[in-house]
């Protein structure tokens, strides 16, 4: 019997669900999506007790309704061997992912800032990336000379870092100019067949957030 | 004999408190504690132990661990508090993530200006009463077991107790509609390692006061 596909519940845009789409795609897992467009749809999910803490993202997978972005990412990573070969590798991957998610958080929140603050925030994002996060990953890659961040195999850390780099490059095209190993990393990970497919038109990858997405989010989530 | 883990943080709860709880519940003695900002230099920042230049830092098993959730996951796995299989682990993760979200709201409130701080704390209490505690009350009711996941003490139980006590500090009556959580609180508090942690002289830190806020702001420059 064929297992049913995971089903994602979220508005039709990146937000906190995009990392989940990246990891499922990288793992070669096909999935369905139920897009939240109205407050009523969210209410229905909440009233039906489908959302543990009344929040999305929510992913129906393996008979469970998973919530909390990190918990979802860890579950998929564990299931699809993207979390290292032992506890030490897993923890290293976890640390890298947590740091990268902190940076990605700035990108996720950006469209919801006041227009006057948005330009300032791009500068802050760039600074954080260039001063705090990229040097760490550049050093890791330079240090072991391998294609992947941890354990010489693809992991959650590589996927989330690539997602974040590409999202930053949309706003700051030359952001990797001082990081040759990260430039090489970006090319190599992008060429992994499942990821290459995800980066092509027609995939479930979502476009950068626009006014329609922002309005949808306000409609669905504002009281 | 394994060396005791070393903790580096401010002398306050913040993001380290859940880690202190987990170590204490597992019966792990903590080694030297470096407390930032109290006459210590910024040495740790520059010598590479702080992966992204941030604390909490826990030195354990030859590793310098940072990133709160990564540290908690490692400790939970190491001390058998993370479930017996992937399905239990993800349930524990969801519960722990939820209670951590709630506690971080309380922790963040300490840094807000007066007026905003009280509103944030009231909002946290409201979320506890309407969003989080009903969920855990229902889980306990539906399962009829002593613990949240797999009929076994786990990281999820430790964090729920921590969250309950934190919210009770803000509103002593918060569990009045949740009889099973009241029983849970008593039961988990009486586990010997946790009972010890709840007594004076343990690593447990008091609620954030203005001194803690000042030190954190000065060291972290915000």
From TrEMBL, chain A:
Organism per entry: Catagonus wagneri (Chacoan peccary)
Keyword annotations from UniProtKB, A to Z: Transferase
Stored InterPro entries: Glutathione-S-Trfase_C-like, Glutathione-S-Trfase_C_sf, Glutathione_S-Trfase, Glutathione_S-Trfase_N, GST_alpha, GST_C, GST_superfamily, Thioredoxin-like_sf
GST N-terminal domain location: 4-84
CDD domains, sorted: GST_C_Alpha
Protein name (record): glutathione transferase
GO biological process, one term: xenobiotic metabolic process
Source species, domain of life: Eukaryota
Keyword Transferase: yes
UniProt-listed Pfam families: GST_C_3 (PF14497), GST_N (PF02798)
Gene3D superfamilies assigned: 1.20.1050.10, Glutaredoxin
GO MF assignments: glutathione transferase activity
The gene coding this protein: GSTA4
EC number: 2.5.1.18
UniProtKB/TrEMBL annotation, chain B:
SUPFAM superfamilies hit by this protein: GST C-terminal domain-like, Thioredoxin-like
GO molecular function (one): glutathione transferase activity
Highest taxon above the source species: Eukaryota
PROSITE patterns recorded: GST_CTER (PS50405), GST_NTER (PS50404)
Enzyme nomenclature, EC number: 2.5.1.18
Domain GST N-terminal: 3-83
Enzymatic class: transferase
Keywords: Transferase
GO BP: glutathione metabolic process; response to caloric restriction; xenobiotic metabolic process
Stored InterPro entries: Glutathione-S-Trfase_C-like, Glutathione-S-Trfase_C_sf, Glutathione_S-Trfase, Glutathione_S-Trfase_N, GST_alpha, GST_C, GST_superfamily, Thioredoxin-like_sf
All residue ranges annotated as the GST C-terminal domain in the record: 85-208
GO cellular component: mitochondrion
Family recorded in the similarity comment: Belongs to the GST superfamily. Alpha family.
UniProt protein name: glutathione transferase
Native source species: Catagonus wagneri
The organism's taxonomic lineage, starting at the top: Eukaryota, Metazoa, Chordata, Craniata, Vertebrata
């Amino acid at each position: 019997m064929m297992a049913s596909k995971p089903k994602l519940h979220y508005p039709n845009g990146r937000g906190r669900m995009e990392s989940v789409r990246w990891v499922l795609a990288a793992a070669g897992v096909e999935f369905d999506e139920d897009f939240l467009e109205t407050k009523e749809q969210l209410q229905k999910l909440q009233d039906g007790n489908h959302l543990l803490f009344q929040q999305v993202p929510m992913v129906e997978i393996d008979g469970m309704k998973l919530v909390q972005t990190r918990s979802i990412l860890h579950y998929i990573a564990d299931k699809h061997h993207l979390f290292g070969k032992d506890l030490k590798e897993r923890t290293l991957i976890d640390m890298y992912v947590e740091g990268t998610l902190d940076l990605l958080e700035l990108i996720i929140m950006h469209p919801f800032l006041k227009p006057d603050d948005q330009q300032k925030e791009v500068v802050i994002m760039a600074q954080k990336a260039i001063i705090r996060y990229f040097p760490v990953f550049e050093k890791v890659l330079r240090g072991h000379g391998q294609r992947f961040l941890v354990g010489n195999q693809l992991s959650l850390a590589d996927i989330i870092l690539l997602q974040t780099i590409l999202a930053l490059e949309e706003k700051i095209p030359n952001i990797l100019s001082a990081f040759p190993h990260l430039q090489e990393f970006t090319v190599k990970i992008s060429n992994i067949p499942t990821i290459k497919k995800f980066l092509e038109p027609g995939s479930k990858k979502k476009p950068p957030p626009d006014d329609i997405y922002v309005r949808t989010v306000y409609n669905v989530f504002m009281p | 004999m394994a060396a005791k883990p070393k903790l580096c943080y401010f002398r306050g709860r913040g993001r380290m408190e859940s880690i202190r709880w987990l170590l204490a519940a597992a019966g792990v003695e903590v080694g030297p504690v470096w407390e930032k900002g109290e006459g210590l230099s910024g040495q740790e920042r520059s010598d590479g132990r702080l992966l992204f230049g941030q604390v909490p830092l826990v030195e354990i098993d030859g590793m310098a661990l940072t990133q709160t959730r990564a540290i908690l996951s490692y400790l939970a796995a190491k001390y058998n508090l993370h479930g017996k299989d992937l399905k239990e682990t993800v349930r524990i993760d969801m519960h722990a993530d939820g209670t951590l979200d709630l506690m971080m709201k309380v922790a963040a409130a300490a840094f807000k200006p007066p007026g905003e701080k009280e509103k944030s704390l009231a909002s946290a209490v409201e979320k506890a009463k309407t969003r989080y505690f009903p969920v855990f009350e229902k889980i306990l009711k539906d399962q009829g077991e002593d613990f949240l996941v797999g009929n076994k003490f786990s990281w999820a139980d430790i964090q729920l107790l921590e969250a309950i006590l934190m919210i009770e500090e803000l509103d002593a009556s918060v569990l009045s509609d949740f009889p099973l959580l009241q029983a849970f609180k008593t039961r988990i508090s009486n586990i010997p390692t946790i009972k010890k942690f709840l007594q004076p002289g343990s690593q447990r830190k008091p609620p954030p006061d203005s001194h803690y806020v000042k030190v954190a702001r000065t060291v972290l420059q915000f």
